[in-house]
Structure formats: structure tokens, C-alpha cells
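User: What would this chain look like folded?
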Amino acid sequence: MAFTRSIRLSGLGGRGLPYIRSRPISSLSFHSWSYPPSVSDVANDEVTRLASSPRRPLTLTDLLRHGRPPLSQEALLASANFALSLIPTRLAYRIQALRNLPFIVVSNPHITKIYNNYVHSLSTLLPYQQRRITTMEEEIQFTDAMADLVQTHTNTIPVLARGFLECKKYISAAEVTKFLDEHLRARIGTRLIAQQHLALHMASQPSADDTRQAQATPSNYIGVIDTALRPAQLIRTCEEFVAEICELKYGVRPRLVIDGEPEATFAHVPVHVEYIITELLKNAFRAVVECSNEREPVEVTIAAAPDVPDKHVQERSGSNQKSSDAEVDFRIGKDTEELPDRDELLGSLNTSTQSITIRIRDRGGGVPPDLLPNIWSYNFTTYREDDLPGGDNGNIDALNAISGSGTNTSSIAGLGYGLPLSRAYAEYFGGSIAVQSLWGWGTDVYLTLQGVGKVE
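Assistant: Here's the prediction, encoded as C-alpha cells.
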């Protein structure tokens, strides 16, 4: 497969998640609008039209639909058009949501920055929006735009958090939680679609060094999805990281035991699972240490449900999914042909859907009853305004780590984002997180992940 030019691998987004771009981010033409923001690059009626498009759930099978890389030119073009059919509408929907915030809140420079980033990204994609991508040169240009989009929105969460913290006098905590729940769930889907195409593009590049290419793209990966993800192995990785933090902060290193079905595998997005597991282990380790009960190991039980036909689970997860979790099914232009059929694109990928439940049990004394109702709320009062640093350090560093779906947060205590953001990642594909606390004894957390079973 010949390409007119290739997009360079620039670094890692999150942990082990590649992102690419062909020019430095500083070359992007960001606008420094003051509120009310200028909409010269994106007309109001265009935003309204896109934001009013019908929506449908995104499934993991949708992300697998283009097949295993390296992709043919036809499949790569289909992947680009699939991303283009969804992302502009999602950006428009978030622009509308930001505009609906109280005037004084959107006037905050941090929140205005996020608004401008979304307008910039949408204006970048609009030239492609009325037509299909039909040549490899257009695909490369579009992939370049996707790489810029991923990089531009990397720090959305910490910037929004700082903005809402500064505006806490003007907007209620309930309104902030509602906005962030919708915004972060929408962000998960947008980034997944973009990163999946970027990863498929990179894995489909011809390489003079076949060995290096094989090492860069493991055979069990289809884009950002690990088709043979082993939760037990990931839990051990997260345990090592959290234990090191715990030892640095408290001087002790709690133990962890895994039972159940440690050999179970399924297909899922590893950076999502890694973030969730890390947050849950941070809570469990901190609880047992502060309860002076670190001699009692944290018990992790893995239970794998039998595979079920993919279509039935898609129907169930789609019906249970919140409207804010849904993707937009927007067709490009008026006279363009429909996107290729999903089954046709899947080709030899015979998928089934499997749920894996992970129970994390600790003897850390449980959650105080007066705090239990608030564990799913985004906490903007943990730190005072004068605690916020002027530079990129301290609390903002921790928020940056959260925003990248990484696990290198700087404080084991977290910032109040851990559980609600973990639940957003789990629920996005039909999973769940449930907490059962015995005050004075300990806590059981049940994480259910709805993934894809065997992918052949």
C-alpha cells in the first residue's frame, strides 16, 4: 500500500497509547476570543444543525468493524469516513452544552479556552464534512487533523476543573456534576473514535523494518483495543504502581491476592481498564493503611461470564446506555452513499460479547455513612482556591494525569474525580461499578466490564 507521505509517531497518549501528528502543536492557529466568543469560523446554524442530529450508542464492535491491521486502502478510507461521520456532530454538541452554561461561568478564561478548542477542532473538520474521503492523500490529511484534535483536547479535564473551581460561587455542585458527567462521557467516545483511526493508520503504514513494526503493534491489538486483554495481568501492573505510591506516602506496602479466574481474557480498551483499576486500588490501599489493617490483604476476585451473541448484548447495552453516552450517527453530505455495512466490514472477525466482573474487597473500615451518598460526585471543594498553583504542578499535575487516562497521579488521596470518572469509563460500554460498604469493617467494589469475547 503506497502513501504519498506518512504521519510521524510523536509519543504516547496515556500509558502505551500511541497518538500521532505531523507538525508541532504550536503551529496550530488557536484563537484568543473573549466572551462572547467569535463564531466566525463556525456559523451558528451549522453548530445547531450538527448538534441536533440523531444519536446512537457506540459499541466496541463498531471500533473493530474495519478489521485487523494492516488495513487495505479501502478499509482505511472506511475508517476515516466512519470517524468523520461521528466526530463533527459530537464537537457541535459539546459547543452547544458550553454555550448553555451561565454567562459568568463561560466567561471564565479556563472554560472559554475549552470552548475555543472545540470551535477550533470543529472548524478544522468542517471542510471534510460535506464530502467523503476518497483518496489516500485526503486520508492522510484527515488523520493529521485527528492527531491535532487528540492533542488539543488532552488537558480538557484539568482546565475545566480549574475553571469550575474558580466559578463555584456561581454554579451549584449538582449542576457541575451533571455537566461533567455528560461532557466526560462524550469526550470518551470522541477520543476513542479519533485514537482508533490514528492507531489503525499507524499500524497500516509500510515499514522498511518489519521487526520494528511488529514490535510497535502487538498482534493482539486492533487499534487501541487489546483483543486478548487479561485483567489479572493488568491488576498486577496497577498494584505495583499504587503500592509504590502507598509506600512513599505511608511507609507501608499493602498486599494483594487474586483469585477466581485469573486466566480470563476479553477484548477491551486497556487504558480505560487500567485507569479504573488504579483508582479502585488507590482507595482500597489507602483505606487499609489508614485503618492500620494493612496486614489484611486486599482481595481481588475475577469472574468471567460466558460469551453471548454480540447482537443481543449490543441491544441490551444500547438500551441501558444514557443519552449522554451515545454517539451521533451523522451521514456526510446529502447525496453521499451510506457507510459500508458493519458485517461486511468485520469480515473474518467473529465477535461475541463477554462481561467480566472484578470484585475488590478490603478490610479498611468501610465508608462513613454520611459520605456514602457523595462518592459519585465530582469534588471541587477538596482544595481551596489559594491552594491552586500558578504553574503546571501540584494539584494541576494530578488532574493532568487523570485527563490523560494515565495512572501516574501524584497523590494517593486523589482529587475527587476517581470514582465518578471510573464509573463513566465502565458504563460507557454497558458496564457498571457498585459499592457495598460495611461501616467498621470494609468495602466491596464490584466492577463489571462489558467487552468483546473471542476475536478471531
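The chain has two domains: 9-217, 225-452. If you want, I can go into more detail on any region.
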